[in-house]
Amino acid sequence: MTRIGDIGTSHVVETDEPLAYYVTLALLKPKKIDSYFLSWLISSPKVQQNIWKRTLHIAFPKKINLGEINQVEASIPKEREQQQIGAFFKQLDNTIVQNGRKSDLLKRQKQAYLQKIFSQELRFAGFNDVWEDHKLKDAAQFNPKSILPDKFEYVDLESVVGTEMVSHRTESKDQAPSRAQRLARKGDVFYQTVRPYQMNNYLYDLLYEDYVFSTGYAQMRPNVDSYFLLNSVQNKKFVQHVLDRSTGTSYPAINSSDLSNIAIQVPLETLEQQKIGLFFKQLDNLITLHQQKLELLKKQKQAYLQKMFI
User: Quick check: pTM over 0.85?
Assistant: First the structure.
């Protein structure tokens, strides 16, 4: 169990090989108690609270002494119930790990497809024309002017993770942050100009007309297929071009003017653009589905910990 820093995280060692452990860990050898039950008992909210109370908070990083760990109290059932609870959470954890691996595999596959499709190494059947170079300012209108509504949903730089919007908040026009300027329209692509290596970029595909993005995004209103454009700027080769033109080291950033002058390659046929865009849209939906399933499993695990370890 960790006893310094991120205190109270535990793991069952499943090997007969001799292992050494670092002083930041506490080695707990179970006495007449199932190992997996003990691990999940430590993770339960009630025991976590007891550990937290005995933690030395004035130290940095925070730590708990071995003597204090020994004093933490917990309710323990009979051995048979311990084993069933331990096995239940072990199976649940295995399911979480498997779904996490599926999600990671899909993300790696997406990056591989981005590289192969946008280098034209991989093409859809029936398309053979050479792609044309277009500066972004020719492929999309940048930062179109608009009048903000009196009340709107504000999307800041923390609101987009990957290609998903994970949060937004209601703001009034007279009290909103000064960076709230970019009124979204369906099909717009928002490119995060700060720390572009994170690739937190979003295609606004909602019907609502009251979402306003921060000026930390460059707003692009495409003349090409929207999903094609989104994935063009998600390509790592494009990201490197952006970084080469960015200023700053800790927080590299690019302005909209410099971004608009970076060239991308675009298929001559609109149908090819649409096929590529739809392919990545479906792949993103599959990734999102697995990610949502993973998050649901983690929430279920926390709920079971809360209810089983009263």
Answer: no
